[in-house]
Design brief:
The complex is a heterodimer.
Chain A lengths: L1 E8 L9 E8 L6 H12 L18 E4 L2 E4 L5 H4 L2 E5 L6 E3 L2 E2 L2 H9 L19 H6 L17 H5 L6 H11 L7 H8 L13 H5 L6 H16 L1
Parallel strand pairs in A: 1-5
Antiparallel strand pairs in A: 1-2, 3-4, 3-5, 6-7
Chain B lengths: L1 H5 L6 E4 L15 E2 L10 H11 L6 H20 L14 E9 L4 E7 L5 H15 L3 E4 L1 E9 L2 E9 L5 E5 L3 E3 L20 H8 L4 E2 L4 E8 L9 H4 L3 E3 L7 H4 L9 H13 L10 E4 L5 H7 L1 H11 L8 E10 L3 E2 L5 E3 L6 E7 L4 E2 L11 H20 L14 H11 L7 H15 L3 E2 L1 H18 L13 H25 L8 E2 L7 H4 L1 E8 L2 E8 L13
Parallel strand pairs in B: 1-5, 9-17, 15-18, 19-20
Antiparallel strand pairs in B: 2-4, 3-4, 6-7, 7-8, 10-21, 11-14, 12-13, 13-14, 16-17, 21-22
């Protein structure tokens, strides 16, 4: 099918400001938007830059705004967004080139919530026991691939870059509700700060944006409730 | 894993062309094999036997012993670091069946794969990345390694391009561990990420390190038709079956005991046979993986990601309709030769190259022999990553900085400038497509002397075209086009080695099936192949297989 692909281009080496470029070509309806970007880079304009790796929604490299909505380019089929497809970088981070943004600040927020199991008790010889129910409690938030689609869909984050953002809160949730973890108190104190969960206005953009189907807003609400429960 | 062994004890850095959480380990689905015996009796010796038999006896048995004995300990280690495995009702790590894993030396299937839904690799990658954060490991993200510095028989560091700036950097190091994965992108239909282009494998080859057993490339039997996205063997472990165009469960004919859980090489070859004999679905080149008889709850809870893939990319509900699948290029059994301490070894006598280590798919230790068992790649990366890290720590007590060459970046700079300032005419994309297509057709599941010669001729022609590539992006910042041209050069080198070694091996063993030599020939070919980079071609040699406990036997499942 014939498609018109519009890409927001920006190379600080040569451009004063971002601009749109338009490409028209044929794709199979069941190709991915990523395949269309690859088509441009391979056959039309080799200067186009974007990140990609696994191409099936697991590595999290290719979060971008597709027709105004945050998606992974490898998880959207051309037929679902054609014939006019517009692609631009995710919002809220510095654009380094074309669709590539600086994700260092994003990872810095992730690191702030202590995203690792904290438990200094000597481990048993075999596994620590955990019931299937205890394991199920945090299953949803283990799916996160750190693509950044949620955080960069959040208007609070757009306005206030200090906000930890949904992705970092999801990472914290995965450990706060893990029965093996002992770091909840420390982590909740960080999440209760001014830049933490109370910035969330339950807009649900994050939940809609998540390519992994995580109930992000629910996870944020569960953290809020946990902070209240711990305090009173 | 190696970095975690070294963190806090020495000055360690991870240099990666991707952000670490983007690495391809994250896509491993079904599980990590270890004889925990949590749901039924199991023993690491059975695991060892399965690994050796699965590898069609080309496995070095001392290495398989280490792999399977250490597997138990490292799975507990991962659990202690926080990995969220699925659990049994008693709270232990749950286990499920996987291809080629048996009880009592081949008596029947055993539950050995420890899993976290169908995203075990994702959880391993996340857990390791998180622990690295905790321990303050320094990361150089989006630094693309373009040369390994080997001088006077000693590795002294690496050269990398910083993608954001295009600048070259030299990392002067006492010891270097390569954990760079595979090179499945030399094939047309592959499960491998775009970024899996064998960069460092080709770089050490160009620097004189031989490559081992490169003719053995595994095709996973159940990739989604034409897409290359895998459907884990765990789907068959949970009861899924393969069905041909006549609606027959054909694996019963070929592997009466293990049926759909026979090893991957065997199933892929059988699928090709079924298709060739006209029993593909609708006469085409695919068969069905049928999960429709399974409890939908099992699919949703134990295989959620693959259910999502099938819905997203095929618009099919796997609980209602069978999934079209085809054998898909998946895993390189061969690679950089190492010993069981993950030290890179450079000749038939296993002489180590001081300062250089390798683990995982880029390495060949060899625990996978001629065909890797499912779940053993995750075991490999953890077991040998950890052993390598520990060995580095030990060696670092004696290793000092070896002097850098005078102009360490000279070779990389020359290669880059050749393309950036050249006035070529060839299209990189066209070269890549031709390479992938000839490799798929002539050096895939079924091979013959004639087809392989044709492939060799094509690859050599493409190598000369590659020198004359036209580059449109002359900039420095995130020049992805330039990187792809370098990556294509690595792939072409490795494709040439793969084809050359496949021509030489005149027998069929594991994933290497020669239609003109259809049986295994232990008298002449029970040996590893070594390929050396040499002026004017590739020089071949061999080294013996280390057999300690299990004598080669005919392989039946």
């Amino acid at each position: 099918m014939k498609i018109t692909l519009r890409i927001k281009r920006y190379n600080p080496e040569v451009d004063k400001r971002p601009h749109w470029e338009q490409y028209e070509f044929d794709m199979d309806p069941t190709d991915r938007v990523l395949d269309a970007l690859q088509y441009v880079q391979w056959k039309i304009d080799g200067t186009l830059a974007f990140r990609r790796s696994c191409a099936h929604g697991i590595c999290g490299s290719d979060a971008m705004r597709i027709n105004g909505v945050n998606r992974l380019a490898c998880k959207v089929l051309v037929q679902d967004v054609a014939p006019r497809i517009s692609v631009e970088p995710i919002r809220g981070f510095k654009v380094l080139k074309d669709l590539i943004v600086d994700i260092e600040p994003f990872l810095e927020k992730y690191r702030q919530v202590l995203p690792y199991l904290i438990n200094d008790e000597p481990p048993p010889e075999k596994e620590r026991l955990q019931s299937p129910e205890e394991r199920e409690r945090f299953d949803d938030t283990t799916k996160c691939i750190l693509c950044g689609a949620c955080t960069t869909a959040c208007p609070v984050f757009w306005y206030n870059s200090e906000y930890l953002g949904p992705a970092a809160i999801v990472a914290a949730h995965r450990f706060v509700f893990d029965s093996r973890d002992r770091g909840a108190e420390e982590r909740l104190a960080i999440l209760a700060q001014k830049s933490g969960v109370w910035r969330c206005r339950t807009i649900f953009n994050c939940t809609e944006a998540c390519p992994r189907g995580i109930d992000v807003t629910k996870a944020i609400e569960e953290i809020k409730r946990q902070i209240i429960l711990e305090r009173f | 894993m190696a970095a975690l062994q070294l963190a806090g004890k020495v000055d360690v850095a991870v240099v990666s062309k991707l952000y670490p959480m983007r690495s391809h380990t994250g896509t491993a689905q079904g599980g990590i094999g270890a004889a925990l015996g949590n749901t039924e009796p199991d023993s690491w010796e059975w695991h060892m036997f399965d690994t050796i038999k699965g590898g069609d006896y080309l496995v070095d048995q001392d290495a398989a012993e280490v792999l399977c004995a250490d597997a138990v300990e490292v799975v507990y280690f991962l659990e202690h670091m926080g990995l969220p495995f699925n659990r049994t009702p008693e709270g232990k790590i749950d286990q499920r069946r996987f291809g080629g894993h048996t009880r009592e030396f081949g008596q029947g299937p055993v539950r050995r794969s420890c899993y976290a839904a169908d995203r075990t690799g994702h959880m391993i990658l996340q857990t390791e990345f998180q622990q690295c954060i905790r321990r303050g490991v320094k990361f150089y993200n989006e630094f693309h390694v373009v040369d390994i510095l080997i001088e006077n028989g000693r590795c002294c560091g690496v050269v990398a391009i910083e993608l954001a700036t295009g600048e070259l950097h030299t990392f002067h190091a006492k010891a270097v561990m390569l954990a760079t994965g595979g090179f499945g992108r030399m094939y047309q239909v592959t499960s491998n990420a775009h970024t899996l282009t064998g960069d460092c494998v080709a770089q050490v080859f160009r620097r004189g390190v031989p490559l081992e057993d490169m003719e053995f490339f595994q095709f996973h039997p159940t990739g989604i038709y034409k897409k290359g996205i895998l459907i884990t063997e765990g789907a068959r472990g949970e009861g899924g079956v393969l069905v041909n165009g006549l609606g027959e469960r054909f694996m019963e004919k070929y592997a009466p005991t293990m049926k759909d859980l026979a090893p991957r090489d065997m199933i892929s070859q059988v699928i090709y046979k079924e298709i060739r004999e006209g029993r593909g679905v609708e006469g085409k080149d695919y068969v069905y993986l049928d999960l429709t008889h399974l409890d939908p709850q099992v699919i949703e809870r134990k295989l959620p990601d693959i259910a999502d893939f099938v819905r997203t990319y095929l618009g099919i509900d796997p609980t209602q309709k069978p999934i079209p699948v085809q054998p898909t290029a998946h895993y390189a059994m061969g690679g950089i030769p190492t010993d069981i301490q993950a030290r890179v070894v450079i000749d038939e006598h296993n002489t180590p190259l001081p300062g250089l280590y390798a683990a995982g798919e880029c390495a060949c230790v060899s625990v996978h022999g001629a065909n890797r068992l499912g779940t053993n790649s995750l075991v490999d990366i953890i077991v040998f990553g950890r052993r390598g890290g520990r060995q580095m720590l030990k060696d670092l007590q004696e290793l000092d900085f070896a002097p850098l060459p005078n102009e360490p970046e000279a070779r990389a700079r020359e290669e880059i400038e050749h393309f950036r300032s050249g006035s070529g005419t060839e299209s990189a994309h066209a070269i890549r497509e031709r390479m992938q297509s000839v490799m798929m057709e002539k050096c895939g599941v079924l091979r013959s002397a004639e087809g392989l010669q044709e492939a060799l001729h094509t690859i050599q022609e493409l190598k000369s075209c590659h020198r004359n590539i036209k580059l449109t992006d002359r900039g420095k910042r995130f020049n992805m086009e330039l990187l792809e041209v370098l990556e294509l050069g690595y792939l072409l080198d490795l494709a040439e080695v793969t084809v050359t070694t496949a021509i030489a091996r005149q027998e069929s063993r594991g994933a290497h099936f020669r239609e003109d030599f259809p049986v295994r020939d232990d008298a002449n070919w029970l040996k590893h192949s070594l390929a050396y980079f040499a002026d004017g071609g590739i020089k071949l040699a061999s080294k013996p297989v280390r057999i300690t406990r299990f004598e080669p036997k005919e392989r039946k499942y």
